[in-house]
Amino acid sequence: MPLANLVWHCFVYKVLTMKEDAMHEDLFIDSLGENDAAMPVCALRRLTEFAGHKPIATTRELDVERFAQMELCRLTPMAVPQPDFYRYWGGEEFDRLYTQYNQVVWQVEWEGNDLTVVHIEWTSSCGGDERDWVIADSLEIAESFILEVSRKTHAPGNAILVFSGGSWQRSESLYQATQSATFDDLILAEDLKSAIRLDFANFLKSEDRYDRLGISWRRGALFIGPPGNGKTHCVRALIKELGVSSLYVQSLSHQYYTAEQMWRKVFARARGLRPCVLVLEDLDALVDDKNRSFFLNQLDGLEQNHGLIVLATTNHPERIDSAIMDRPSRFDRKYHFDLPTQIERTSYLLIWQRRLASEIGWAESEVQPAAEACEGFSFAYMKELIISSVMQWMGDESRHFKDVIEAQAAVLQKQMRTDKSPPPSK
Predict the structure, then answer these.
(1) Which residues of 323-357 are buried (b: 16+ CB within 10 A; e: fewer)?
(2) Phi–psi pair at 413, nearest 5 degrees
(3) What is the Cα–Cα distance from 219 to 207, expressed in whole angstroms?
(4) Contact 334/261 with Cβ under 8 angstroms?
(5) Selection from 67, 71, 36, 55 nearest residue 133 by Cα
(6) How far is 270 from 249, CA to CA, in rounded Å?
(7) Which of 281, 289, 279, 277 is closest to 323 using CA atoms?
(8) How many whole angstroms separate alpha carbon 364 and alpha carbon 377?
Protein backbone atom coordinates (compact mmCIF):
# COMPACT_ATOMS: atom_id res chain seq x y z
CA MET A 1 0.00 0.00 0.00
CA PRO A 2 1.40 3.43 -0.93
CA LEU A 3 2.53 5.52 2.03
CA ALA A 4 -0.06 8.24 1.32
CA ASN A 5 -2.89 5.69 1.41
CA LEU A 6 -1.54 4.19 4.63
CA VAL A 7 -1.44 7.62 6.29
CA TRP A 8 -4.98 8.32 5.08
CA HIS A 9 -6.33 5.02 6.48
CA CYS A 10 -4.63 5.67 9.83
CA PHE A 11 -6.18 9.12 9.95
CA VAL A 12 -9.68 7.81 9.16
CA TYR A 13 -9.30 5.03 11.77
CA LYS A 14 -8.26 7.57 14.42
CA VAL A 15 -11.19 9.85 13.63
CA LEU A 16 -13.66 6.95 13.79
CA THR A 17 -12.10 5.72 17.03
CA MET A 18 -12.38 9.19 18.57
CA LYS A 19 -16.04 9.37 17.57
CA GLU A 20 -16.65 5.91 19.02
CA ASP A 21 -14.96 6.90 22.32
CA ALA A 22 -17.00 10.10 22.46
CA MET A 23 -20.16 8.10 21.82
CA HIS A 24 -19.27 5.65 24.56
CA GLU A 25 -18.45 8.49 26.96
CA ASP A 26 -21.76 10.26 26.44
CA LEU A 27 -23.94 7.17 26.01
CA PHE A 28 -25.33 6.95 29.58
CA ILE A 29 -25.62 10.70 30.10
CA ASP A 30 -27.45 11.17 26.79
CA SER A 31 -29.66 8.15 27.39
CA LEU A 32 -30.62 9.12 30.94
CA GLY A 33 -31.21 12.77 30.14
CA GLU A 34 -32.93 14.46 33.07
CA ASN A 35 -33.43 11.18 34.91
CA ASP A 36 -32.13 11.13 38.50
CA ALA A 37 -29.87 8.21 37.61
CA ALA A 38 -27.73 10.57 35.50
CA MET A 39 -26.47 12.30 38.63
CA PRO A 40 -23.87 9.67 39.70
CA VAL A 41 -22.80 9.19 36.07
CA CYS A 42 -22.08 12.92 35.66
CA ALA A 43 -20.34 13.04 39.02
CA LEU A 44 -18.12 10.10 38.14
CA ARG A 45 -17.03 11.78 34.90
CA ARG A 46 -15.93 14.89 36.78
CA LEU A 47 -14.23 12.78 39.43
CA THR A 48 -12.32 10.86 36.76
CA GLU A 49 -10.88 14.18 35.55
CA PHE A 50 -10.06 15.13 39.14
CA ALA A 51 -8.43 11.79 40.01
CA GLY A 52 -6.17 11.68 36.96
CA HIS A 53 -4.48 8.29 36.78
CA LYS A 54 -5.77 7.12 40.18
CA PRO A 55 -8.53 4.45 40.28
CA ILE A 56 -11.97 5.15 41.76
CA ALA A 57 -14.18 2.71 43.68
CA THR A 58 -17.87 3.59 43.98
CA THR A 59 -20.04 2.62 46.95
CA ARG A 60 -22.86 4.03 49.08
CA GLU A 61 -23.70 4.55 52.75
CA LEU A 62 -20.02 4.47 53.68
CA ASP A 63 -19.92 5.72 57.28
CA VAL A 64 -16.41 7.18 57.25
CA GLU A 65 -17.32 9.68 59.98
CA ARG A 66 -18.13 6.95 62.46
CA PHE A 67 -15.04 5.07 61.33
CA ALA A 68 -13.02 8.15 62.27
CA GLN A 69 -14.87 8.49 65.60
CA MET A 70 -13.71 4.95 66.35
CA GLU A 71 -10.15 6.31 65.82
CA LEU A 72 -9.57 3.96 62.89
CA CYS A 73 -8.70 6.75 60.44
CA ARG A 74 -8.17 10.51 60.30
CA LEU A 75 -10.58 12.74 58.35
CA THR A 76 -10.08 16.27 57.08
CA PRO A 77 -12.74 17.99 54.94
CA MET A 78 -11.28 19.74 51.89
CA ALA A 79 -11.96 23.46 51.62
CA VAL A 80 -12.40 23.23 47.83
CA PRO A 81 -14.99 22.34 46.77
CA GLN A 82 -16.64 23.96 49.78
CA PRO A 83 -18.53 21.32 51.78
CA ASP A 84 -22.26 21.62 52.35
CA PHE A 85 -23.11 20.95 55.99
CA TYR A 86 -25.31 22.13 58.84
CA ARG A 87 -25.10 22.15 62.61
CA TYR A 88 -27.78 20.75 64.90
CA TRP A 89 -28.37 20.45 68.63
CA GLY A 90 -28.25 16.98 70.18
CA GLY A 91 -31.07 17.73 72.65
CA GLU A 92 -31.12 17.84 76.41
CA GLU A 93 -29.48 14.44 76.84
CA PHE A 94 -26.66 15.25 74.36
CA ASP A 95 -26.26 18.96 74.93
CA ARG A 96 -23.81 19.87 72.17
CA LEU A 97 -23.73 20.79 68.49
CA TYR A 98 -23.31 18.08 65.87
CA THR A 99 -22.36 18.43 62.22
CA GLN A 100 -24.19 16.78 59.33
CA TYR A 101 -22.46 16.77 55.92
CA ASN A 102 -24.56 16.54 52.76
CA GLN A 103 -21.77 17.12 50.24
CA VAL A 104 -18.11 16.82 51.22
CA VAL A 105 -14.70 15.73 49.97
CA TRP A 106 -12.66 14.04 52.69
CA GLN A 107 -8.92 13.68 52.84
CA VAL A 108 -8.37 10.37 54.64
CA GLU A 109 -5.31 8.96 56.38
CA TRP A 110 -5.68 5.21 56.87
CA GLU A 111 -2.99 2.67 57.67
CA GLY A 112 -0.28 4.72 56.00
CA ASN A 113 -2.39 5.44 52.90
CA ASP A 114 -3.71 8.80 51.70
CA LEU A 115 -7.17 8.48 50.19
CA THR A 116 -9.90 10.84 49.02
CA VAL A 117 -13.56 10.10 49.72
CA VAL A 118 -16.23 12.12 47.92
CA HIS A 119 -19.72 12.03 49.43
CA ILE A 120 -22.69 13.48 47.50
CA GLU A 121 -26.40 13.39 48.38
CA TRP A 122 -29.25 14.50 46.15
CA THR A 123 -33.04 14.47 45.96
CA SER A 124 -34.57 11.95 43.59
CA SER A 125 -38.08 11.08 42.48
CA CYS A 126 -38.05 8.29 45.09
CA GLY A 127 -37.02 10.56 47.95
CA GLY A 128 -33.25 10.75 48.17
CA ASP A 129 -30.06 9.05 47.06
CA GLU A 130 -26.34 9.21 47.79
CA ARG A 131 -22.99 7.89 46.62
CA ASP A 132 -19.45 7.67 47.95
CA TRP A 133 -16.42 7.53 45.68
CA VAL A 134 -13.07 6.38 47.09
CA ILE A 135 -9.95 7.53 45.23
CA ALA A 136 -6.69 5.77 46.14
CA ASP A 137 -3.28 4.86 44.70
CA SER A 138 -4.65 1.46 43.71
CA LEU A 139 -8.04 -0.18 43.36
CA GLU A 140 -6.96 -2.77 45.93
CA ILE A 141 -6.39 -0.05 48.57
CA ALA A 142 -9.71 1.64 47.77
CA GLU A 143 -11.69 -1.60 48.02
CA SER A 144 -9.83 -2.68 51.17
CA PHE A 145 -10.80 0.63 52.78
CA ILE A 146 -14.47 0.22 51.83
CA LEU A 147 -14.47 -3.32 53.20
CA GLU A 148 -12.86 -2.30 56.49
CA VAL A 149 -15.19 0.68 57.03
CA SER A 150 -18.23 -1.49 56.27
CA ARG A 151 -17.11 -4.23 58.67
CA LYS A 152 -16.29 -1.92 61.56
CA THR A 153 -19.36 0.32 61.31
CA HIS A 154 -21.91 -2.37 60.47
CA ALA A 155 -22.88 -3.09 64.10
CA PRO A 156 -24.68 -0.22 65.85
CA GLY A 157 -22.34 -0.21 68.87
CA ASN A 158 -23.61 2.13 71.60
CA ALA A 159 -26.77 2.87 69.64
CA ILE A 160 -29.96 1.24 68.45
CA LEU A 161 -30.77 1.13 64.75
CA VAL A 162 -34.16 2.77 64.15
CA PHE A 163 -36.02 2.16 60.88
CA SER A 164 -38.14 5.09 59.70
CA GLY A 165 -38.66 6.87 56.39
CA GLY A 166 -37.27 3.90 54.50
CA SER A 167 -33.80 3.94 56.06
CA TRP A 168 -31.88 3.04 59.20
CA GLN A 169 -30.58 5.65 61.62
CA ARG A 170 -28.42 5.15 64.71
CA SER A 171 -30.10 6.37 67.92
CA GLU A 172 -27.80 6.86 70.88
CA SER A 173 -30.63 8.36 72.97
CA LEU A 174 -32.79 5.24 72.59
CA TYR A 175 -29.79 3.12 73.51
CA GLN A 176 -29.28 5.20 76.67
CA ALA A 177 -32.97 4.69 77.51
CA THR A 178 -32.48 0.92 77.36
CA GLN A 179 -29.37 1.11 79.53
CA SER A 180 -31.34 2.86 82.27
CA ALA A 181 -34.11 0.24 82.21
CA THR A 182 -33.95 -2.66 84.67
CA PHE A 183 -36.20 -5.53 85.64
CA ASP A 184 -35.92 -4.32 89.24
CA ASP A 185 -38.13 -1.34 88.33
CA LEU A 186 -40.65 -3.49 86.46
CA ILE A 187 -43.63 -4.59 88.54
CA LEU A 188 -44.80 -7.94 87.17
CA ALA A 189 -45.83 -11.23 88.67
CA GLU A 190 -42.52 -12.84 89.64
CA ASP A 191 -43.21 -16.01 87.65
CA LEU A 192 -43.85 -13.94 84.50
CA LYS A 193 -40.75 -11.81 85.00
CA SER A 194 -38.55 -14.85 85.63
CA ALA A 195 -40.00 -16.73 82.66
CA ILE A 196 -39.21 -13.88 80.26
CA ARG A 197 -35.65 -13.39 81.53
CA LEU A 198 -34.75 -17.08 81.59
CA ASP A 199 -36.35 -17.80 78.24
CA PHE A 200 -34.12 -15.43 76.29
CA ALA A 201 -30.98 -15.80 78.40
CA ASN A 202 -31.06 -19.58 77.89
CA PHE A 203 -31.79 -19.13 74.20
CA LEU A 204 -28.64 -17.09 73.57
CA LYS A 205 -26.49 -19.66 75.35
CA SER A 206 -27.90 -22.65 73.47
CA GLU A 207 -26.88 -22.24 69.83
CA ASP A 208 -24.78 -25.43 69.80
CA ARG A 209 -27.55 -27.46 71.40
CA TYR A 210 -30.13 -26.18 68.90
CA ASP A 211 -27.78 -27.12 66.04
CA ARG A 212 -27.18 -30.63 67.42
CA LEU A 213 -30.90 -31.23 67.74
CA GLY A 214 -31.61 -29.85 64.27
CA ILE A 215 -33.84 -27.08 65.66
CA SER A 216 -33.79 -23.62 64.12
CA TRP A 217 -32.00 -21.22 66.51
CA ARG A 218 -34.46 -18.34 66.47
CA ARG A 219 -36.91 -16.90 68.96
CA GLY A 220 -40.02 -14.75 68.86
CA ALA A 221 -42.23 -13.33 71.58
CA LEU A 222 -45.37 -11.24 71.49
CA PHE A 223 -46.12 -8.95 74.44
CA ILE A 224 -49.87 -8.41 74.70
CA GLY A 225 -51.91 -6.09 76.87
CA PRO A 226 -53.49 -2.66 77.31
CA PRO A 227 -51.17 0.35 77.10
CA GLY A 228 -49.18 1.48 80.11
CA ASN A 229 -48.57 -1.90 81.75
CA GLY A 230 -44.86 -2.42 81.18
CA LYS A 231 -44.48 -3.92 77.69
CA THR A 232 -42.06 -1.26 76.44
CA HIS A 233 -40.18 -1.21 79.76
CA CYS A 234 -39.78 -4.98 79.57
CA VAL A 235 -38.48 -4.82 76.00
CA ARG A 236 -35.90 -2.20 76.98
CA ALA A 237 -34.78 -4.11 80.07
CA LEU A 238 -34.49 -7.27 77.99
CA ILE A 239 -32.38 -5.50 75.33
CA LYS A 240 -30.02 -4.30 78.05
CA GLU A 241 -29.78 -7.73 79.66
CA LEU A 242 -29.17 -9.66 76.43
CA GLY A 243 -26.41 -7.30 75.30
CA VAL A 244 -26.67 -7.96 71.54
CA SER A 245 -27.26 -5.56 68.64
CA SER A 246 -30.80 -4.17 68.59
CA LEU A 247 -33.01 -2.84 65.82
CA TYR A 248 -36.30 -1.00 66.26
CA VAL A 249 -38.94 -0.59 63.54
CA GLN A 250 -40.67 2.74 64.06
CA SER A 251 -42.55 3.03 60.77
CA LEU A 252 -42.89 1.32 57.39
CA SER A 253 -44.52 4.25 55.63
CA HIS A 254 -42.81 5.72 52.57
CA GLN A 255 -43.98 8.00 49.81
CA TYR A 256 -42.72 5.78 47.00
CA TYR A 257 -41.78 2.33 48.30
CA THR A 258 -44.22 -0.38 49.34
CA ALA A 259 -44.44 -1.96 52.77
CA GLU A 260 -43.11 -5.18 51.23
CA GLN A 261 -39.95 -3.38 50.15
CA MET A 262 -39.66 -1.91 53.64
CA TRP A 263 -40.01 -5.33 55.27
CA ARG A 264 -37.30 -6.68 52.95
CA LYS A 265 -34.90 -3.94 54.08
CA VAL A 266 -35.78 -4.53 57.75
CA PHE A 267 -35.10 -8.26 57.72
CA ALA A 268 -32.02 -7.95 55.49
CA ARG A 269 -30.37 -5.59 57.99
CA ALA A 270 -31.38 -7.71 60.97
CA ARG A 271 -29.99 -10.88 59.39
CA GLY A 272 -26.69 -9.15 58.88
CA LEU A 273 -26.38 -8.46 62.63
CA ARG A 274 -27.33 -11.84 64.10
CA PRO A 275 -27.56 -12.64 66.91
CA CYS A 276 -29.67 -9.57 67.44
CA VAL A 277 -33.00 -8.32 68.72
CA LEU A 278 -35.56 -6.96 66.24
CA VAL A 279 -38.26 -4.92 68.00
CA LEU A 280 -41.66 -4.49 66.31
CA GLU A 281 -43.64 -2.16 68.56
CA ASP A 282 -47.39 -1.95 67.90
CA LEU A 283 -47.33 -4.90 65.54
CA ASP A 284 -51.01 -4.43 64.70
CA ALA A 285 -50.13 -1.05 63.11
CA LEU A 286 -47.18 -2.42 61.11
CA VAL A 287 -48.85 -5.49 59.58
CA ASP A 288 -51.99 -5.13 57.47
CA ASP A 289 -53.84 -7.12 54.82
CA LYS A 290 -51.57 -5.85 52.04
CA ASN A 291 -48.21 -6.80 53.57
CA ARG A 292 -49.17 -9.64 55.96
CA SER A 293 -48.28 -12.47 53.56
CA PHE A 294 -44.85 -11.02 52.80
CA PHE A 295 -44.20 -10.35 56.49
CA LEU A 296 -45.00 -13.96 57.34
CA ASN A 297 -42.67 -15.22 54.62
CA GLN A 298 -39.86 -13.11 56.08
CA LEU A 299 -40.66 -14.27 59.60
CA ASP A 300 -40.73 -17.92 58.54
CA GLY A 301 -37.31 -17.86 56.91
CA LEU A 302 -35.65 -20.86 58.58
CA GLU A 303 -31.90 -20.75 57.95
CA GLN A 304 -32.00 -17.04 57.14
CA ASN A 305 -33.32 -16.16 60.60
CA HIS A 306 -30.73 -18.16 62.54
CA GLY A 307 -29.94 -16.16 65.69
CA LEU A 308 -32.78 -13.68 65.21
CA ILE A 309 -34.87 -12.64 68.23
CA VAL A 310 -38.12 -10.87 67.32
CA LEU A 311 -39.89 -8.98 70.11
CA ALA A 312 -43.29 -7.61 69.14
CA THR A 313 -45.83 -5.70 71.20
CA THR A 314 -49.50 -4.97 70.69
CA ASN A 315 -52.27 -3.19 72.55
CA HIS A 316 -54.87 -4.68 70.19
CA PRO A 317 -54.43 -8.44 69.65
CA GLU A 318 -57.90 -8.60 68.11
CA ARG A 319 -56.55 -6.65 65.12
CA ILE A 320 -53.81 -9.19 64.38
CA ASP A 321 -54.48 -12.00 61.92
CA SER A 322 -54.82 -15.48 63.39
CA ALA A 323 -51.97 -16.65 61.14
CA ILE A 324 -49.71 -14.55 63.34
CA MET A 325 -51.44 -14.95 66.68
CA ASP A 326 -52.16 -18.65 66.63
CA ARG A 327 -49.21 -20.27 64.86
CA PRO A 328 -46.39 -20.99 67.36
CA SER A 329 -43.56 -20.94 64.80
CA ARG A 330 -44.12 -17.20 64.25
CA PHE A 331 -44.09 -16.14 67.90
CA ASP A 332 -43.02 -18.94 70.22
CA ARG A 333 -44.24 -17.19 73.36
CA LYS A 334 -47.08 -14.82 74.07
CA TYR A 335 -46.77 -12.92 77.33
CA HIS A 336 -49.78 -11.05 78.69
CA PHE A 337 -49.30 -7.73 80.48
CA ASP A 338 -52.69 -7.29 82.11
CA LEU A 339 -53.88 -4.47 84.33
CA PRO A 340 -52.05 -4.72 87.68
CA THR A 341 -53.62 -6.55 90.60
CA GLN A 342 -53.94 -4.86 93.98
CA ILE A 343 -50.69 -6.50 95.13
CA GLU A 344 -48.90 -5.14 92.05
CA ARG A 345 -50.47 -1.70 92.48
CA THR A 346 -49.30 -1.64 96.09
CA SER A 347 -45.76 -2.66 95.09
CA TYR A 348 -45.65 0.06 92.47
CA LEU A 349 -46.92 2.78 94.82
CA LEU A 350 -44.45 1.69 97.49
CA ILE A 351 -41.60 2.49 95.09
CA TRP A 352 -42.92 6.04 94.82
CA GLN A 353 -43.67 6.30 98.52
CA ARG A 354 -40.04 5.53 99.41
CA ARG A 355 -38.87 8.10 96.89
CA LEU A 356 -41.24 10.87 98.04
CA ALA A 357 -41.78 10.18 101.77
CA SER A 358 -39.20 12.60 103.13
CA GLU A 359 -40.50 15.45 100.98
CA ILE A 360 -44.28 15.08 101.22
CA GLY A 361 -44.76 13.10 104.42
CA TRP A 362 -46.47 10.11 102.81
CA ALA A 363 -46.43 7.21 105.27
CA GLU A 364 -46.01 3.59 104.15
CA SER A 365 -49.19 2.63 106.01
CA GLU A 366 -51.14 5.00 103.74
CA VAL A 367 -50.15 3.24 100.51
CA GLN A 368 -52.66 0.39 100.79
CA PRO A 369 -55.77 2.64 100.71
CA ALA A 370 -54.36 4.45 97.69
CA ALA A 371 -53.81 1.12 95.91
CA GLU A 372 -57.43 0.20 96.56
CA ALA A 373 -58.61 3.58 95.27
CA CYS A 374 -56.94 3.12 91.86
CA GLU A 375 -58.42 -0.23 90.92
CA GLY A 376 -58.47 -0.60 87.13
CA PHE A 377 -55.53 1.76 86.64
CA SER A 378 -52.58 0.82 84.43
CA PHE A 379 -49.06 1.49 85.68
CA ALA A 380 -48.95 4.53 83.40
CA TYR A 381 -52.20 5.80 84.90
CA MET A 382 -50.84 5.31 88.41
CA LYS A 383 -47.76 7.31 87.48
CA GLU A 384 -50.06 10.09 86.33
CA LEU A 385 -51.90 9.75 89.65
CA ILE A 386 -48.67 10.27 91.59
CA ILE A 387 -47.50 13.23 89.51
CA SER A 388 -50.86 15.02 89.52
CA SER A 389 -51.25 14.40 93.26
CA VAL A 390 -47.82 15.84 94.01
CA MET A 391 -48.68 18.92 91.94
CA GLN A 392 -51.98 19.31 93.81
CA TRP A 393 -50.21 18.94 97.16
CA MET A 394 -47.54 21.53 96.26
CA GLY A 395 -50.37 24.01 95.63
CA ASP A 396 -51.56 23.53 99.23
CA GLU A 397 -49.00 21.82 101.47
CA SER A 398 -51.28 22.12 104.49
CA ARG A 399 -53.28 19.18 103.17
CA HIS A 400 -52.30 15.63 104.06
CA PHE A 401 -50.92 13.81 101.00
CA LYS A 402 -53.07 10.74 101.79
CA ASP A 403 -56.20 12.83 101.27
CA VAL A 404 -54.82 14.45 98.13
CA ILE A 405 -53.96 11.17 96.38
CA GLU A 406 -57.28 9.52 97.24
CA ALA A 407 -59.22 12.55 95.97
CA GLN A 408 -57.15 12.63 92.80
CA ALA A 409 -57.77 8.89 92.29
CA ALA A 410 -61.50 9.58 92.35
CA VAL A 411 -61.07 12.29 89.70
CA LEU A 412 -59.10 9.98 87.42
CA GLN A 413 -61.62 7.18 87.93
CA LYS A 414 -64.31 9.47 86.54
CA GLN A 415 -62.15 10.35 83.56
CA MET A 416 -61.69 6.65 82.79
CA ARG A 417 -65.45 5.99 82.70
CA THR A 418 -65.99 7.23 79.15
CA ASP A 419 -68.87 4.77 78.79
CA LYS A 420 -70.80 6.78 81.40
CA SER A 421 -71.14 9.79 79.09
CA PRO A 422 -74.78 10.96 78.64
CA PRO A 423 -76.61 9.70 75.57
CA PRO A 424 -77.02 12.12 72.65
CA SER A 425 -80.18 14.23 72.65
CA LYS A 426 -82.97 13.13 70.36
Answers:
(1) ebbeeeebbeebbebebbeeebbbebbeebbeebe
(2) -60, -40
(3) 11
(4) no
(5) 55
(6) 11
(7) 289
(8) 20
